[in-house]
Amino acid sequence: MFPRGTYVSPEKRCVLGKCVFGNTGVLAYLGLALLLAGCDQSAIAESETTKAEGETVALDSEVKEASYLLGFKQIEDLLQQTDGVIDADAYLQGAKDFVGDKTSQVSDADQQRVFTALQAAVGAKQAEASAGVREAGEAFRAEYATREGVTQLPSGLLYEVITEGSGPKPTASDTVTTHYHGTLVDGTVFDSSVDRGQPASFPVNGVIAGWTEALQLMNTGSKWRLVVPSDLAYGDRGAGGQIKPGATLIFEVELLEIN
Hints:
Protein name: peptidylprolyl isomerase
Structural class: alpha+beta
Shape: elongated
Strand content: 15-25%
Number of domains: 2
Number of helices: 7
Number of strands: 9
GO biological process, one term: protein folding
Radius of gyration: 22 Å
CATH class of the largest domain: Alpha Beta
Helix content: 25-40%
Pfam families: FKBP_C, FKBP_N
Order of helices and strands: EEHHHHHEEEEHEHEE
Catalytic activity: [protein]-peptidylproline (omega=180) = [protein]-peptidylproline (omega=0)
GO molecular function: peptidyl-prolyl cis-trans isomerase activity
CATH architecture of the largest domain: Roll
């Protein structure tokens, strides 16, 4: 739950194949070619030739249903991870060329160049989008800080005590169990153990900085509302499809126990 790396909401995780833009600036990817590398390409190609152009494949077996779902989820994940920058038609053409045992239209020598260009395009789009997201977060925090009962810490973290517990406070080295409900400033829910009906356990020092700071101030049994600036959350990289770069995050957190 909220590791320091990239957060991906459970319902958005793909079974196989995922494009990740790491903090080092290196594009790591597992494309459809790798997904299909162990498959019988001749059988796939033969299947392709039996369909008329534009004909929908009949999902008349569980294997076909799973195959369809892998394609559906993978392109969904890629579009989210690249903020819609990738060209879906070109992506699908690459998949067709691979299963048709054709030579790639982009040479091995050009791979690094084109992926670097893709990363730059994604970065530019994220920077443009994050400016508005960051401004919306700043405006929300400025207004929220004026509310009665809200405390602002030097780090910029804001919290409001909903219920004050009487148990011990955890340390950074502890593991805790919590219930939480996370939203964006517009009210969009991006993750919620409450909605899933299952508390989450994790190390105090293994989550985003805003959580690590707040948890050590909370008595067990407490329930707080946290407003976390992006610098204490996922910063300019964002996380998953819903948490955009620069996003301020709002959580209701109930500290159930120290494990």
